[in-house]
Amino acid sequence: MRQAFTSGAAQREGVTRARLQRKDVVPLGSGVYAARALAETSTPLAVLTLKAEALTREWPDAWASHLTAARLHNLWLPGRLLDDPRVHLSQPANAKTWVRREGVCGHRVSLRPGDLTTRNNLKVTTPARTWLDLASSCTVRELIILGDQLVRHPYPRFEGRTQPHATPADLTNLLAETKGTAGRRRCLTALTWIRVGADSVQETLLRLALIRVGLPEPELQVPALPGTRSSPRTDLGYAELKIAIQYEGDTHFIPAQQRADQRRDNIFLAEGWVVLRFNAEDAREGFRRAVNQVRATLTARNARSRAREGALITNR
Fold first, then answer.
1. Counting Cβ atoms within 10 Å, is residue 119 exposed (0-12), middle (13-18) or buried (19+)?
2. End-to-end CA distance of the chain, in Å?
3. How many Å apart are CA 14 and CA 172, to the nearest integer?
4. What is the pTM of this model?
5. H or E stretch at 25
6. Residue 97 DSSP class
7. How many CB atoms lie under 10 A from the CB of residue 74?
8. Shortest CA distance to 33 belongs to which of 46, 45, 24, 41?
9. Can you tell me the distance from the alpha carbon of 251 to that of 260, in angstroms, rounded to the nearest whole number?
10. What is the DSSP string of 244-291?
């Protein structure tokens, strides 16, 4: 069998409790079972999908939502929410039944048309709607991180999609049409700081750290050679002052990637840019040292720019 099933579904098919206790069947939790061969060859995400599919067959008007939807869409979640093992299911606000089961968290929600999609025949909230549904459990900063992830342009080669999960306009329309929804005001605040171009959580956190201390907001995905399609780009930067800021995760320390990064940086340096490179050590200290280094570089570059302007005036 390629599906999981609830104990109730098994009972309706005449399967006894004793049969469910045999070694070729394993419990997945929340009263859901699957063939051992299926469970043992499935990834944790696939097991979650199996559970949600079995539960929504039990409650046909329900759909996967909140933390469960975020996991199914492979969205970033704050660490404290990752400890929630429950399957989150939502039903229409006027549903006559209520999802009640150990290990399942039920919600009542009013959806707009288009707020649901499917993954492997499982009804699930769209990434944008999931962002709103999570607002009651997240801080504004966490909603900015999630929002940046929604609107970023994907890399088809690695992600299997060509379009972002949502656009800033999609999120604006969502919030305009869901007045009264819990967490909406928090999302409205987050929306003002969501930007297209952050390719990682740490890039978002670095940008917010710079803004928080009063430094100018950096641009994202800034080309070394404006107007050149093949130009390398910096994660964050100040184009006018030619300051490039790169956040380099663990993959950047693989030899092949290090070589590529060196060639990238040389193009920036040859064009007169200052290149600042930060990594997980900077992230662990909340980017405090990184902020100071960016501030010092901004000060030096601004002073140089003013001196150049003064020299031009003097020589006229």
1. middle
2. 84
3. 50
4. 0.91
5. strand 25-29
6. S
7. 11
8. 24
9. 12
10. EEEE--GGGGSHHHHHHHHHHHHHHHHTT-EEEEE-HHHHHTTTHHHH
Q: Residue 154 has what DSSP assignment?
A: P
Residues 169-196: b if buried by 16+ CB within 10 A, e if exposed:
ebbeebbeebeebebbebbbebbebbbe
CB 63 within 8 A of CB 126: no
Q: At what angle do helices 184-191 and 168-176 cross, to 10 degrees?
A: 150
Closest-CA residue to 88 (of 119, 133, 128): 133
Note the pLDDT of residue 315.
62
Task: Provide the CATH number for the domain formed by 201-314 in this structure.
Answer: 3.40.960.10
Asked if 21 and 44 touch (Cβ cutoff 8 Å), the reply is no
User: Which residue bears the tokens 């394993």?
Assistant: 26
Q: Where are the domains of the chain?
A: 201-314
User: Would you give per-residue pLDDT tens digits along the chain (316 residues)?
Assistant: 679 999 999 999 899 889 999 999 999 999 999 999 999 999 999 999 999 999 999 999 999 999 999 999 999 999 999 989 999 999 999 988 888 899 999 999 999 999 999 988 899 999 999 999 999 999 999 999 999 999 999 988 888 889 999 999 999 999 999 999 999 999 999 999 999 999 999 999 999 999 999 999 999 999 999 989 899 999 999 999 999 999 998 878 888 889 999 999 999 999 999 999 999 999 999 999 999 999 999 999 999 877 776 666 666 6
Instruction: Kindly list the distances between the CA atom of residue 8 and the CA atoms of 32, 103, 109, 174, 219, in Å, as whole numbers in the listed order.
Output: 9, 15, 25, 37, 55
